[in-house]
Amino acid sequence: MSTPRALVVRTAGINSEVELCRAFTLAGADADLVHLDRLTQDPTQIRGYDLIGFPGGFSYGDDISSGRIMAMRTRQKLMPELINAADRGVPMIGICNGFQVLAQIGLLPGLDADRSPSVALCENTSGRFQDDCVALKVNAELACIWTRDLVQRASESADEPELVMTIGHGEGRFVTKNSSVLEQLQQNNQIALRYRDDVNGSVDRIAGICDPSGRIMGLMPHPERMLHWNRHPFWTRLPKSVRNTHAPGLGMFISAVEAVSTQAV
Fold first, then answer.
1. Of 199, 233, 205, nearest to 128 (Cα)?
2. Could you give the domains of the chain?
């Protein structure tokens, strides 16, 4: 297969698009940064991509609520092409604001055919914006292509440090429409990442989820900000055997690029 092509969708207020492009590039893909306005003019452009990323930031100033305006425009103009992409197995990732968008347009958690929203990211219980480095636990039982490397690293190396990533959000508290949705996520094994501690009041300490296919993922922590070990809070104390490997954030993108490189989408 030729080099996979990654689409990174940006718009006003997004501020992590460069890091997301770099993550895809370091993982072996060719990344294109495309404005939402250009995509809405010709949604068929999506057909030319093998991976899709929705970056973090504060799209449209997060007016009304976080990610709402970007989600509304995406659902109105791009939804048929995104559903087609999902049906042909295109991996997608939404990070922070991007996760909020994927949840509001219904690509996550993807529990029903009509893609109706059933989860949301609400105000943190602290009532404030939280910018911190947090410890995470990866679900080793989940067949999610984005977390394959994380699971493998944890199982193969005794030196592997606890997984940590940065967060930066005021509305990151994961909630479900009702208890039935939470039970479905748990029973379907769609919870990809959990916070080690109660960071923002998220139900079941959920930090990230996947759709039933394991190819569409949303998470509030930022893997694109953990592409190198020197972004780790105590990287100078890590064993050399660890620092000689790729960082966990980069590993997530390597897993996705490898998945599409070995399977036509």
1. 199
2. 5-261 (3.40.50.880)
* Structure token pair of residue 136: 């995470």
pLDDT of residue 1: 65
**133 among known catalytic residues:** no
* Paired residues of 209 in beta bridges: 191, 218
Q: Is 123 a catalytic residue?
A: no
Residue 91 contacts residue 146 (beta carbons within 8 Å): yes
List the catalytic residue out of 19, 169, 210, 222: 222
Write the pLDDT tens digit of every residue in 181-204. 999 999 999 999 999 999 999 999
Tell me which residues of the chain have a pLDDT lower than 70: 1, 264-265
For the question of residue 122 being annotated catalytic, the response is no
Distance CA 177, CA 191 (A): 16
Among candidate residues 19, 21, 224, 232, the one labeled active-site is 224
Query: Among 17, 19, 96, 169, which one carries the catalytic annotation?
Result: 96
Q: Residue 233 corresponds to which tokens in the numbers above? A: 């809070």
